[in-house]
Design goal:
With 148 residues, this protein is mostly helical. 52% of the residues lie in helices and 0% in strands.
Length: 148
């Protein structure tokens, strides 16, 4: 486990190197080897999952008034229904879908991507009490989704 802490320290210390090059350099692995097993050993997320992590962290911060107020306008929470439905009071976000058949740049925007990702999260993660527990649970959820 000491090597993992040392590798993490070196990556943080030398930010000018790309992560993969630094990992391969310090771990003395061949240049053209797969980086995924090393990421698994260090409990690091892949780039796509890190982007998802950042988006969901912003949504969590918007819900708890920790994010800039400009982001409040980009997402909207579904109003509670008078009927007894399963999704009431669960913090479900609305996806504003337009009738189009092709993927556009709008599909990758925060206002469209954030609700899709947030609604997929399990209820236990969405209802975390603190940002520290949310980060921990979210990282574990994304890590298990990729590597298991």
């Amino acid at each position: 486990m000491e090597i993992a802490h040392y590798l993490t320290f070196l990556i943080i210390r030398f930010k000018s190197f790309s992560e993969c090059r630094m990992l391969l350099l310090v771990s003395s692995m061949p240049r053209y080897c797969h980086i995924t097993p090393l990421l698994f050993d260090l409990h690091w997320l892949l780039v796509k999952q890190r982007i998802i992590f950042k988006i969901l962290l912003l949504v969590y911060e918007v819900f708890h008034q920790l994010a800039p107020s400009d982001l409040d306008d980009l997402i909207s929470v579904m109003l509670c229904s008078s009927y007894n439905l399963r999704h009431n009071n669960y913090g479900v976000l609305l996806c504003h879908l337009l009738a189009h058949s092709k993927k556009t740049l709008r599909d990758h925007s925060f206002s469209c991507a954030a609700p899709k990702l947030w609604n997929i999260l399990p209820f236990g993660i969405r209802c975390s009490n603190s940002i520290v527990s949310f980060k921990s649970q979210l990282k574990t959820f994304l890590f298990e989704k990729v590597f298991y």
